[in-house]
Amino acid sequence: MSKAAKVVAALKVEQLTERQARAEHKRLADEIAHHDKLYHEKDDPEISDAAYDKLRQRLKAIEERFPQLLDMFSPTQKVAPTPTTAFAKVTHRRPMLSLDNAFSDEELQGFFDRVRRGLERETDLKPDAEIAFSCEAKIDGLSISLRYEDGEFVQGATRGDGTTGEDVTANLRTIKDIPHKLKGQGSSKPPKSLDVRGEVYMERKAFLDLNARQVAAGEKPYVNPRNTAAGSLRQLDPEITAERPLRFFAYAWGEAEPRSWKTHSEYLKLLKEWGFKTNPLTRLCRTPDDVRAFYRKMGEDRPSLPYNIDGVVYKVDRIDWQERLGFVSRAPRWAIAHKFPAEQARTRLKGIFIQVGRTGALTPVADLDPINVGGVVVARATLHNADEIERLDVREGDMVIVQRAGDVIPQVLGFVPEERPKNARKFHFPTKCPCPLETPVKAEEGGVVRRCSGGLECPFQQVERLRYFVSRNCFDIEGLGGTHIENFFNDGLLKIPGDIFRLKSKEAEIRKREGWGDLSVNNLVKAIEDRKTIPLDRFINALGIPLIGEATAKIMAQEYGDVDDWLAEMLKAAKERKKTPDDVKKEKAAAAVGESYGRLCNVEQIGVTTADAIAAFFSEGHNVDIIEDLRKQLTVEAVKRRVIAADAALKDKIVVFTGELNTMTRDAAKARAEELGAKVTDSVSKKTSLVVVGENAGSKARKAAELGIETLTEEEWVELSGSGR
Ligand code: IVH
Fold this sequence. Notes:
- The chain is built from 28 helices and 26 strands.
- The protein is an alpha+beta fold.
- The strands form eight sheets. The protein has a five-stranded mixed beta sheet. Strands 16-15-14-17-18 form a five-stranded antiparallel beta sheet.
- Strand 14 and strand 15 form a beta hairpin.
């Protein structure tokens, strides 16, 4: 983030000027889109739910203050990104919507007031009449829709973007809580045509057991039960899903013909009669005070439940009232999710130690007395940097408050002053790297990060870089986990990444080591051989270039295509950058400083700062040697052009073009869409999968936004379809 952007990000929404708000709106929208992708497509989020909710809340607050910024492209108008996997697509007969969140008493009161006002307007509700709410623990899993015809389970799908999900029928059939045939006679006979909706989840214990197995097999552990459940459901082989202990609670419906029930609570009873599990933590509350009491009780019970809940859902019980209240773009007006604050606990801070990252950044880590925070044992928490320790004023020996927000990285929030022992020690940030070289620590200019100055020589950094190199999103070498890398490094078997591919010649030596039998050595050698062919994006990511992660590596691979071109361009850019004066940044004259450096600065998501980091990396002869060494041993595959992805993405999709296109005629655009397997129609309906919105678009674009259909700008369309290439 630029300095200016950092300043804006730190301001309260009320303090923003319109110009700042516009920039901040864009930044938040981009960031949310990035996290949506990690969450929905990769089942591998990098921030906590609480942090994600904060981003969305801030975006919403900006749109409330500056309504002119709200457009249909805002993440607040979308349910979730369109799924992109090998599963067949299913268009839901009724969209699967999301819920609005309430985080505070005021927000909850706002919901009660809106419901009451709405019903007074739309019905003959008297001012003091009772409105009953069905209150249900909000399970933290993933929602799915199950289709039953004449009581027979025929199809099941994930939510996807709310309109279109993925067909995971075979996997859902392996879940024992999902009946294949519905029970019920007479008045409780199931509707002829019915979509039952609910949550697939995994119990905490099952999650911990599965993760323990995952780690033992040298795989990256899953982040939390929800992502494990999502990953398990999206296995291409149903036998793998069957081995995962998934559960299901039913709580809603999509289509129901004919529908006999008049209230939500009646429906929940019927679900049980048909053979579904419904959450026992459900209560019909007749007053707001009842609702609040239920929320408090759930909050208290939460740590001891066998599964994770992240709030309570309140639904207006009467269905005729639900229908009167209706929906706003992505959520019903008759329901809300009342979220819990992140889970916290107190424990003793035994000490603080320093961890050295692959780029030399020193991170202080809290060593804690192990403590159960909402079902997960926490023994370590990041303290981020020296400033953070200063700000929190925590000392070794303190009783501290630990928070596990959305299960990602536990945090230390502060200490308990009454319980500070007399001998609590203030932490002094080391001036030397804890590695054997003990190189001096340098504070980064203008930043809070302190780094080991040992650079490429620091053995701790070398180990971290090797660990990163073999990790799941890079070379993904199974059986070469973190401790193996460290031991091999310490014993001289490995020093640089290329050594991994020379390990085969040291087979005999490895076989002599403790814990390495024939089988594990053979497996390791095979796993390494299997990775001798690697896609360009993974190759780039694995090099550990500062500021380049998985997403940027992908973009770079798309831009440069194959490894020779990429490397030649990077070396040229590094040379050009060396010659340029520092004030290039100020002048923003990136394009003028050299062709390759300019091109690099203009790649999506790479600005001057990232380009400089890349240039610095390639100016270092040692780094270039490492790459050359790898290239001699590996086949780096050129990227498949995006057109192929579009091919899959557009197959059988219904696409509508609206507004004026600038870079192509409407006919050319249509022809391209059809070439990629899409059907092009003229009007937007529930069935539409994608709307491409040109300039001066009118009602069709609005309708798309109302129905929550994915929209693309012309530019995005060109990008997706490979038009003009
Ligand atoms: S009702 C239109 N009920 O929460 C209403 N959702 O944040 C649709 N969830 O997508 C949802 N427990 O994945 C509903 N008892 C419950 C729920 C529940 C968990 C999840 C569900 C939904 C998300 C919205």
